[in-house]
Amino acid sequence: MNQTNYRLPKRKDGQKTFDNIIETARKLFSKNGYQATSINEIIEKSRIATGTFYLYFDDKFALYSYLLSKYRRSIRKAISEGIKHADTRYEKERLGIKAFLKFAWDDPLAYRIIWESMFADKELFKEYYQTFSHDYVRQLSHAVRNGEVKDDIDLETLSYILMGISNFVGLQVLFRDTLTDADLENITDNVMKVLKSGMFR
């Protein structure tokens, strides 16, 4: 992803303005979609001067690209934190799925922002999921060498299967009115029952 189309703030007051623009855009993109949200609307709702917007972003796409990359980092951080005490691939999958579901519940706008990339720019959408896939394949390859995961499964396909499961079970979570820790554990355990029969030795 090209980072030259946006510029990070260097001062605390600039950071506050930058964060305000990001949060305003996040809400507008998730409510109206990428195409229907204009720069002028973002500027108006952020209560900033036009020049202030262009101080940080070249255009609307630059802002959206930054927001998407921020979500990718946040999701990776949430999963990394969730699996940090896990020793086996099985446990990493279980805790990783649970962490993602918790992230989706805590930030329901994430889905709309991420899937909007399909309409904002096909290459951006493609790059988002391919990056996750490449990292997943690297981790799964290690698990295959350790004898934890079956060696007759194409790992790229498996990575997309696992991402697909997380994505759509995430929708199951979002469609609920309430979510307790017990609910989260139960949903995660049911996912793992399926995975245990399919990918683990």
Automatic annotation (TrEMBL):
<dbReference type="InterPro" id="IPR001647">
    <property type="entry name" value="HTH_TetR"/>
</dbReference>
<dbReference type="Pfam" id="PF00440">
    <property type="entry name" value="TetR_N"/>
</dbReference>
<dbReference type="InterPro" id="IPR036271">
    <property type="entry name" value="Tet_transcr_reg_TetR-rel_C_sf"/>
</dbReference>
<protein>
    <submittedName>
        <fullName>TetR/AcrR family transcriptional regulator</fullName>
    </submittedName>
</protein>
<dbReference type="GO" id="GO:0003677">
    <property type="term" value="F:DNA binding"/>
</dbReference>
<dbReference type="InterPro" id="IPR023772">
    <property type="entry name" value="DNA-bd_HTH_TetR-type_CS"/>
</dbReference>
<feature type="domain" description="HTH tetR-type">
    <location>
        <begin position="15"/>
        <end position="75"/>
    </location>
</feature>
<dbReference type="InterPro" id="IPR009057">
    <property type="entry name" value="Homeodomain-like_sf"/>
</dbReference>
<dbReference type="InterPro" id="IPR050624">
    <property type="entry name" value="HTH-type_Tx_Regulator"/>
</dbReference>
<feature type="DNA-binding region" description="H-T-H motif">
    <location>
        <begin position="38"/>
        <end position="57"/>
    </location>
</feature>
<keyword id="KW-0238">DNA-binding</keyword>
